[in-house]
Design goal:
The protein is mainly alpha-helical and 242 residues long. Helices cover 66% and strands 5% of the residues.
């Protein structure tokens, strides 16, 4: 059940970033949307000015930020079961993706925010990095209490396991199917595996209070949903071109 929920969450997060974020911004700014996958959004920006291009580059993280914040807000009314875990992980993956991009992209010179900074003073990267630090810390602060008093045991199941199996293995494997070549498996791994790597260790922190823990019971509905999600994962892993 945990892995089924994780599969749905990671699929939604990547499509939020590439499709809802980059894809919608491409259309709204007058670009030509060529295709979308779990690892890329292909937008012809040849007729666009530099700030329109920057809007497109920033929109992926903007969409993740909106979805993640909404999930975090909805978590307050979701109880303590599988639905709560879905919202908890949806918030974690979306918000950590944004934090990861902000922390890494300006420093190492690749990805959305490196492209956003092209033509701008180098010092502009500093507030982006600072924003990544603040967002990561805030996300951990709000999500950690939901693991309850036995954080390490809960975190291994609810955070580490989905990050390693789905964020690292399944999403990278799906990206290897894409029509633009296996190199996108590497960029996908950097985003989904590297960007959400906070899930691999945050449960070991002793921050803050404890809430009643989220508990995930076996759910046939979620297992079926996860199996169904494999279909769009394969389709968008390969990529849709039009």
């Amino acid at each position: 059940t945990v892995l089924s929920i994780a599969l749905v969450v990671y699929l939604l997060a990547t499509l939020t970033h590439e499709g809802l974020g980059h894809g919608t911004a491409c259309l709204l700014t007058g670009g030509d949307l060529v295709g979308v996958s779990t690892a890329w959004c292909d937008c012809d920006k040849s007729e666009l000015g530099p700030w329109a291009v920057r809007v497109i580059k920033a929109a992926g993280c903007g969409a993740n930020l909106l979805v993640g914040s909404g999930a975090l807000l909805a978590l307050r009314w979701a109880g303590r079961g599988a639905t709560a875990y879905f919202l908890w992980l949806l918030a974690a993956v979306n918000l950590f993706l944004v934090a990861g991009y902000l922390l890494v992209s300006p420093v190492f010179g690749f990805g959305d925010w490196a492209a956003f900074l092209e033509g701008l003073p180098g010092i502009m990267g500093l507030p982006l990095i600072a924003g990544g630090v603040v967002l990561a810390a805030a996300t951990i602060h709000f999500l950690l209490p939901h693991l309850g008093p036995n954080r390490v045991a809960a975190g291994r199941t609810l955070a580490l396991l989905p990050w390693a199996v789905v964020g690292g293995g399944v999403m990278s494997a799906a990206a290897m199917l894409n029509v633009h070549g296996v190199e996108y498996a590497f960029s996908s791994a950097l985003a989904t595996f590297g960007g959400t790597s906070f899930l691999a260790w945050m449960y070991r922190l002793g921050w803050g209070r404890h809430l009643d823990p989220i508990t995930v019971q076996r759910s046939s509905a979620w297992i079926v949903t996860g199996l169904v999600a494999l279909v769009p994962l394969v389709v968008f892993g390969r990529g849709l071109l039009w």
